[in-house]
Design brief:
With about 240 residues, this protein is of the alpha+beta class. Helices cover about 55% and strands about 20% of the residues.
Length: about 240
């Protein structure tokens, strides 16, 4: 806006000087026609002047006209300089505006990328959850299949729990060992295994099936009394 105001001032100044120059030229033309070849006198500003004096005045006005024309030339040069500077400023403004527009485009692209990133992360999270659920389901099915296979092969399926080891002695189900269905084995040597004084179980356990049995399956309930003459191992099995 400041450059536009400056340009208007220069244009106004040029117009004024041009009008002055035009008036001077008209005055010279009128005076030239008015003065004849004779040595006459005229009335000018209340005084009578000779032809020579009039010519002197004309020459002076011509000199002033030249000065005005020189000033006009300088003004035009300054105007051209200002115009060049204004064009340079306009070019800088256009470049700056272009950079601002590019920044806006980049910000929009970044916003779009962030939105896409969030969508991708959501998809990954969903797929991870689905994969975890699928893996858990497969593991459960594999465990079930292995249990069925073990049951088909051995007839007994051990539960995923640590076996309970007890030394030789007297024990009560519910206090010393939880109730459940167990596979009972000796931890070394051979000896007797009694439950409820032999009324529920009276077995000779051995490491091999020579003198007794190497393992015995029994359902122990709370309140059962166990008596063993050897250390024994109790492994929970499926019902």
């Amino acid at each position: 806006m400041e450059d536009t105001g400056e340009k208007r001032k220069w244009n106004k100044k040029v117009i004024i000087l041009s009008v002055i120059a035009l008036l001077c030229m008209v005055g010279i033309y009128v005076l030239g026609n008015y003065i004849g070849d004779r040595n006459a006198t005229v009335e000018l500003e209340g005084e009578k002047k000779s032809r020579e004096e009039m010519l002197s005045e004309v020459a002076k006005m011509e000199g002033q006209l030249m000065v005005i024309e020189d000033e006009l030339t300088e003004i035009k040069k300054e105007q051209e300089t200002k115009t060049t500077e204004l064009e340079a400023l306009q070019e800088e403004y256009d470049e700056t505006q272009s950079i601002i527009d590019q920044k806006s485009d980049l910000e929009n692209e970044l916003t779009t990328l962030n939105s896409n990133k969030e969508e991708i992360e959501d998809n990954i999270s969903q797929l991870t959850t689905e994969l975890s659920d699928t893996q858990t389901d497969l593991e459960s099915k594999i465990a079930d299949a292995e249990a069925q296979l073990q049951k088909l092969e051995n007839g007994i399926v051990a539960k995923k729990a640590e076996p309970k080891n007890l030394p030789a002695g007297f024990f009560e189900v519910g206090n010393d060992i939880p109730e459940g269905r167990y596979k009972v084995q000796t931890n070394g040597g051979f000896g007797n295994f009694f439950v409820n004084e032999g009324s529920k179980a009276n077995i000779l356990l051995d490491t091999v099936d020579d003198l007794g049995v190497s393992e015995y399956i029994i359902k122990l309930v709370e309140g059962d009394d166990i008596e063993t003459t050897i250390p024994t191992k109790y492994t929970l099995v499926e019902e």
